[in-house]
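Next up, a specimen:

>
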Amino acid sequence: MPRRVRGFDRGARWPANLGIAALNTVLERLVLPAGMVGFAIEARKHGWGLLNNFPVSYVAAILVTFVIFDLAIYLQHVMFHAVPALWRVHRMHHADLDFDVTTGSRFHPVEILLSLGFKLVMVGVLGPPAIAVLIFEVVLNATSMFNHSNFRIPENIDAWLRLLVVTPDMHRVHHSIVVNETNSNFGFNLPCWDRLLGTYLAQPEAGHDEMTIGIDLFRDSKQLRLGRMLLQPFSGAAGNYPINRRAA
């Protein structure tokens, strides 16, 4: 049930998109072998973080962790669009010329390491239960696959569903080539942050079938190759996409 007609054959995009996902997985295991869950266990042992120093029930700690981590990831995503140097790293994700489930795993290794460091700080400051970190990481990866999918959801169902979770139609707007549309709908799990903080945009101006996916740089299909993707943060100017440079 595809939402949009595919612009490129899977063979042109999937090897590099899945390849970067494999590379990032290996990189994370090398940098932090025990993972985020292991670090949360260590934080618990040493009494690091707010939740390890206040009387909070186990269930409440899990819920608080999920909500705060989701807000933090939203804010991190906004920062990757606001700071030109961070945008250079993040734009590889946006330079995909089609939009499907593999786009959800297409992140530059530098961004993966920066995000890992940010989440480590969050674990150290908050002191969440290890199971809460595991739940959040699983849900974050699952929703990234879901909201980047080329899956058609009936509009009446999508209108209700996006009140609870970020849907593919909601997130696809974020991958529009139009600058102000790119700088909208930053959420991955909970859609409430975009609505509360003024970054929600219901639909792309050109419609989902006619909108152009990607950014104004790297439009050549050769840029879909893994080697070219890895060099994109160091190629060309930051352009007009960083939020502080966008039109009114």
